[in-house]
Amino acid sequence: MNLIIFLSFLLAKPPHPPTIPDSRIDTYRTVGDTELKVWIIGESDPKEPKPAIIFFFGGGWKTGTPKQFEPQARHFAERGMLCLLADYRVETRQQVLPVECVKDAKACLAWTRENAQQLGIIPDQIACAGGSAGGHLAGATGTLPGLGSEERPNALLLFNPALLLSDLGKWKMGDFGRERKLGIPAIDLSPAHHVGPHTPPTLILHGTKDKIVPFFTAQAFEDAMKKAKRPCKLVAYEGQGHGFFNRGEPYQKTLAKADQFLTQLGWLKPVTSQ
Predict the structure, then answer these.
(1) Which of the residues 18, 103, 128, 241 could staple to 67 if both were Cys, CB 3.0 to 4.6 A apart?
(2) Which residues pair with 207 in a beta bridge?
(3) Torsion angle of alpha carbons 139, 177, 65, 140, nearest 10°?
(4) First to last CA, the chain
(5) Among candidates 178, 128, 116, which has minimal Cα distance to 152?
(6) pLDDT tens across 212-262, in order?
(7) Does residue 11 register a pLDDT over 60?
């Protein structure tokens, strides 16, 4: 069943580059002939800087579109944030391995912080967010050393993210730990192995019946965060599979949890009942 779902996802390739109405487009990195873009949603005023979120799409490091998180971005833009929908290189378009995807994500965070003033962003209120492989990239920005940058986000907002790529203590990968072509050893690209004092407050939203990225991998990351005495909340969605947060009631519930998380950080004003 895993393979059928995964292949179906790969075959349903969305248009690239995407069309995202009412957004501003900028280039955060150029690699060879590839210009990597961000689509920025939200009102920007350098005189009144705002918190920001960078969203990284899912797609197994193979495919995907920055448009995936457009609904969440529009919600948080309405709540007073600046939202960046980031493109990055993937296997089907640029023939790269996951390590290059991580380098792009780190470069995007570094570019955002470097340009925070002109973008109208509060430089110490930048979150990285993403789902599946995009959740891995977001998690990598908050954990992995090197790979082009040591910049860290100030929060992580992760949807069924791939956070464990190799055995870690009691957490054994089993069949899920089959050999992957990542570009570097799996342990060096595994966020759970690199949690430390530098890792920001994290929210993980994960389905318990996820057959693509098993729920226990999120538990392993939460366990590593607890051992490092770092703030981390894992919210389990009983019976939900991979990508559950993209649609229907789970979309609304995960969006509400994400909003609550950012409100508790003091980045958003509490929603007042009318």
Answers:
(1) 18
(2) 237
(3) 20
(4) 46
(5) 128
(6) 999 999 999 999 999 999 999 999 999 999 999 998 999 999 999 999 999
(7) no
Strands 202-207 and 155-159, bridge-based pairing: parallel
Cβ–Cβ under 8 Å, residues 221 and 192: yes
pLDDT digits (tens, 9 = 90+) for 158-200: 999 999 999 888 988 876 555 568 989 999 999 999 999 999 9
- The count of residues in the chain is 274
> Secondary structure of 8-30 in the HEC alphabet?
HHHHCCCCCCCCCCCCEEEEEEE
Residue 52 near residue 122 (C-beta atoms within 8 A): yes
| Cβ-proximal residues to 260 (8 Å cutoff; 6+ apart), any chain | none
**Rounded Cα distance, 27 and 25, in Å:** 7
Q: Which residues pair with 236 in a beta bridge?
A: 206
